[in-house]
Every structure is written in C-alpha cells, then in structure tokens.
Amino acid sequence: MWDLVPQPGIEPGPPALGAQSLNHWTTRDVPERLNKCSRHPGLWKMLMVAVCVALLGCLQAQEHQGHVSVILLGATGDLARKYLWRGLFQLYLEEAGKGHSFRFHGAALTSTEQGQEVIAKILESLSCPRDMAPSRCAELKAQFQQLSEYRRLKMPEDYLALSKDIEARIQHEGLREAGRIFYFSVPPFAYADIARSINSSCRPGPGAWLRVVLEKPFGHDQRSAQQLATELGSFFQEEEMYRVDHYLGKQVVAQILPFRDQNRKALDGLWNRHHVERVEVILKETVDAEGRISFYEEYGVIRDVLQNHLTEVLMPVVMELPVNISSLEAVLEHKLQAFRALRGLQRGSAVVGQYQAYSGQARRELQKPDSFHSLTPTFAGILIHVDNLRWEGVPFILMSGKALDERVSYVRILFKNQAYCTQSEKNWVPAQSHCLPRQIVFHIGHGELGSPAVLVSRNLFRPALPSASWKEVEGRPELRLFGRPLSDYYAYSPVREQDAYATLISHIFHGQKDAFITTENLLASWGFWTPLLDSLAHEVPRLYPGGAENGHLLDFEFSGSHLAFSQPPPEQLMPGLDSTPTPSDFQVLRGKYRESPLISAWPEELIARLASDIEAAAVGAVQRFGEFHLALSGGSSPVALFQQLATGHYGFPWAHTHLWLVDERCVPLWDPESNFQGLQAHLLQHVRVPHYNVHPMPVHRHRRLCAEEDQGAQAYAEEISALVTNSSFDLVLLGMGADGHTASLFPQSPAGLDGKQLVVLTTSPSSPRRRMSLSLALINRARKVAVLVMGRMKREIAVLVSRVGREPQKWPISGVLPDSGQLVWYMDYDAFLG
Ligand code: BG6
User: Does any ligand 1 atom lie closer than 6 A to the CB of residue 245?
Assistant: First the structure.
C-alpha cells in the first residue's frame, strides 16, 4: 500500500475534518502520489489511479472548504459553560467529515493554567445526542477536545500572537483559511477594546471571512445602544456582526413566520383585528435574580427580557408577511415597518413588580447599607397597541417576571368568538364547535407540556408544518393547556429538539443571518422601549412574595391603553412607612458644604451621580488632553462606585485612563487588605485599562514593606511627575474618616499635611502598620477633588467638619482645598442628614 506518511504537525492534533486519516495531505503532495500510483501495472494501476483521482477530488474539496478558527471570548464564563461549548461541540458533530478543518480557541483573562483547567472540565462534561452510537461519540469528543485549547487574551499583542499562530498552523498544514468566528461572551464594556484588537491585528487574510458574534446587552437605552453600535461599526462591517438573541434560535420562534407562510390560505382572513381578540407574549420564570444582581440591578426585567426576547417574538406575529420570507431584506423591511406602527408606550402602559427578597439580595451582593431599597422591576406587564389597519384596537400583552409560579414561554393568539351554541357542551365536537375557544399557541418551551410545540385549536383549521422536522404530539390527552385538553388542538413538536445556541452557532458558521439582530432592528427596538423605561425610572414596583404565593397579586387588567393591577397591594407586603421608598426620596439634593458644592442623595443615586460625573470628567479630559489621570482611594465606600463604573459606563474611555492610588497599606499588593486588591477585584478585572496605565503604589520593594531606604514614596512621586502634567491629577477621589482623616493623612501626624513632598509614608494612630499616601500638597494640585462620605457613622464628623476652618493637623480633611481646581462633596443622606 501507499506510504501515507503524515506531514509533521506543529503539534500533535486530530485530523482535519473530512480528511480523517489523510489529514496532513495537501494538494502539494498529490502529483507525487499520483506518480506513485502510476508505477503499478495494469488494472491495479487503473484502479489506483481512479482512487487517487477520487482522493484528489476529495482533497480539493477539503481545501475549497478551508480552515475555520473559532475564538470563544469569555470561554470560562457562565454562558460558555452552560451553552456555548455545547453549541460548538454540536457544530463539530454536524460538520465533522464535511470538508472543513477547525480549531476552537477558548479565551479569557484568566491565567493560562487556571483557564486550561476550567476548559478541560467543561469539555469533559460534553455529551452527544442520544441517537449517536457511544463509540462514535467518544471518537468525536476526543477529536473535539484535541482541537480545543485555552489561551489568555488580554493585551492587544495577545491578539496579534493568536493571529500569527493561526496563520502558522494554516501554512504549515497547507490549508486555506476559510474564516474566523469571534464569539464575544464578555460584558459589553469590554467590547470596544476587543473589537479594536481584532480589527487591528486579528482579521483573517484576504478571501477569508470574519464573523463576530455579540451577546446582549446591546446598550441600556437608545443612546447607549447607538453609541455602542457606532463604536462597533467603526471596527466591523454590518455583515460581519451577528448580534445574538437566543430566542431567535428557539425552534418554535423560528417557526412563526414559516407557519404563517405555509398556512397563508387559512390565516389570510383570520390574522387581523376582525378576528383576533388579543395576543399574549409571555416568559414566566420561577428562578430569581440571586447571583446576578450586579447585572440585574442595572437592567431589570424590561431591559433583560422584554426589549429583546419578547419583542423579537412579537415581531413575526405583528409584521406584514413578505411574499418571500426567505428574503432577508424583505423580512427586515417588514419588521422595521412593524416597529414604526407600534404606538408609543406611556407610563400607564405598564405595571411593574419586584419579588420581596430582591432588595435584601441586592444589599448582600452589592454591599449596600441597610437603608438601601432597589426600584429595579423583576416583573412587568405591558400593553401594546399597533396602529395599522390590520391590528387597530387589538391588545398585545407582553409579560415576564422572575420568582413566578411556573416556567413557561409562549405566544398565544386568541381569536374572537361570537358564536352561540344551542347544545350542551358534552355534545360539542371539538373540530366543529365554534363555541370552544379558538387559539393558536406557539409554545416556546417548558410549562406543563415540557417541550416546544405549535398548537392550533381543532375548530380553526388543520395546519401545515414541515413533516420532516415536525411531528404530531402523541399521547397525554388528559393534559390541559390554556383551558382546554390537549386533544382539542392539532399539536406539533419538533422531531428533534435542538438547543437555541446550537442552532444559532450553526447559522453563524453557515453565514446565515436571518436569526440575528441588525443595527437598525436594535435601534428600532430601543427607540420603542426607551421612553417607557425613562418614565418608569422612579416607579416603585409592587412587592410580591414569589412563587405560588403570589396568588392574584400580579394579575392586571386594561381599559383603553391603560394597564393596572387588578387588586390593591396587601398591607403586610409593604415595609413600614418609614422605609418605603417613594419617588421623592430618590431626588438628588444640591447645596454647599464648607463653601464647596455638595451633592446629597440616597446611596444608590449618589453613587450613580458620582460615577456619571467621573465619566464626564474622563471624557472631557480625553477629548482635550488625550488622557485622563484618576487617583482613587481604597476602603469600603468606593466599592459600590467601582462596581457602578465597571457595569454601567459604556462610554468610559478606559483605554486612555491612568489609574493611580491615593493611598496604600504597607502590605504586599496581593494581600487582600491592600487597596490595590480592592480596586482590582471591583473594577480592574471588569474593565480594560491597559496594564501600563495602572499605577499601584510601590509599597513592596526589595522584598521589604515601606522601608524608608527603598524610597518607594519618592519613586511614586517621580512616576507622577513624569506622567501627569504639572503633577495635577484630573480627578482625585477621597473619603473622610470618622476622625477626620483623608487619604492616609492622619490627625496629629505631620507627614503629608504640610510641606512640598508629593508622596509620603505615614502612620495611623489606630494601627501599627504604615501607609503610603498622596500628600495634601499633591491632592490640592488636582483639577477636581471629589470627597465621598457615606453612612451614619460619618454623621458626627460631617457636622463637626462643617463648622471648622482650615486645621489640617486636627482634621486633615479640612486641609483639602484645591489650589485652582474644584472640590465637590458627595454625601449620602445618612452622613449629611443623619
Ligand atoms: C436571558 C436573560 O437572556 O434569558 C435571563 O438574561 C432569562 O434573565 C433568560 O432567564 C431566559 O431564557 P430561557 O431560554 O431560559 O427562557
């Protein structure tokens, strides 16, 4: 036989797909191998030539298909663990042997060792569909594991290195590059930096495609969505972007338009205001938001679910049916038209609720004080009207909530019924009786049925569904759905259930764009929801106990375009009057404190305000000077601020921001007590500040902590002088201790309180451990100083300091008075009013 010697690989790897044992053959080898064939005489030779030609065809086909690199960013995160690796494995199972070669690069910020460990575990847990033979599954899984690797992608140069590795591998194996898929399973604040790196150094070569896959949230409101879209648009073409809404990957959702298309004849006269009583688009969940409060607190149920999933499910019901539903442009155009026909939402178009345990969970997860009450809705019911001839007057109800009594999602179209039946119900024939409810339900998932299904009342019509992929639901005649036994419906479910992410990943691989959100679509949706979100910003949600105990508490009803809860809230669910937040409690108070501007509010508002002010200062500084120098204090008060900056501020120019420390404890930087660790945990690991822009204090030099002879303070001062123009920070964030200290400048401890030294070593009267701190002289050179004071414990000192003059030796905070910059006090109500 032939000597099918594989080329030496870059590293041992599984065969390229479709080539199996010929994995390292390339067309370069073929002439030589054909030559070998031709040395065999007679028939044998002919046979061999035929085989060789077939193989050549096969190899050429493989080369035509090319090599695909999939880069999963955020590969160790929750979504990746639960769905994305599974989806990629599914893709591999489907595409194995069809002529592409693959490599899967899991990437994250985690260290290589840790990342590899996590990925290995995820890969080990993958399973094949039930109908696959175990031996085949084991073989493909082993190949997939070998084709998958973890790598740390942090700095721009890491992307360049990745690109080089891909190119080297492709060249070495004599392959052609088909394309690269970058799946962004990372928080949106990281999008811009990653996008920039991909665009500048990790695009595939000419002739190969790039597909970037983006996960929601795509903004927070219309403005931020537009901003994010513009930013991403500067790096990628529209056709390169695949914005995922995983509901579009659900089998039943994907079936709505085809169902309307295939049943045009039956639906033509029915799908309109004359026949439709109402439409319900529902996603009920039993889980609550525990464990994801830092995300949820920013978004709430409307942004999390209604603006995207439910809107995307609503659209194929509402829109006019294009003549050709396979035309991407026609579907998008009709969808945009439908958005334009939606009547604007008013405050009265919604009811909102919050499960009772939510605020407590938020206090715990976000380290908020006891006084904190969140206004974030975890439940919403919305009434939508569509102002066009087809839908005039038909109510569309959208509803979703956490901690409800069941998990189910569906779209239900309920038809009007004007019939009167003369016989008693026991004599009705379901397929003929017009008195029975008539409905079409796109049962997306879960619920009592437990699976996706399309249900059509038998008294409507027998629907057509693609018989190869949909089958009639069998058995369970006793099951009742939407008030009727299952036997009252023609019911169809998919022959093979497929996970939404697996479906979408397959679409991405095939470049099929119909199940993704275009920029226009996204902005149209935010345009619709933003006014309502704004009007609900200070709405106090109705509290509900959660689960079956909710009873009828969340039932709502509508008249005209107004929606209201059906029942008044029961007394026992409301917290005491003194702690019930009211809209007016959330206003921000402005005043003067020590002759400087004061902003006072409840902690949440205060932090949000401070974060916005810092962002505004950052944007301004970057516009004018190209960089922003921010010096941050440690301790517990700024934690919430760091978290706020990490989650809610898409426009923050992190890439141009330099972060400095106001003070530091004399402990190694990795010690949990170090201020740098706090900054790292709550901010740095969530935002992409270039590492060379982060300036920890050099408290640990030559394996010693704050030794005078190591001159750490002088070194920090020199670094500041070298990088910060005039040693004048753009913004310094300070706190105020209960003894009047600020930074690590303590009463009765002269260091840093006077003199010209910029950075000093100090000693706290209450702790033997030394500190390093910016001096008053340096702080007062800043353009802006913000002092954040929070909590009841600060009330006394706040009163005292309001009355004293400039006496830094007694109250170092009183020495903060910028030479030419601005000082602003941010005090929560507890500290300011007691
Ligand atoms: C996600 C939301 O997009 O969708 C979650 O962030 C929600 O809050 C989930 O639970 C619902 O999806 P599914 O597929 O479980 O119905």
Answer: no
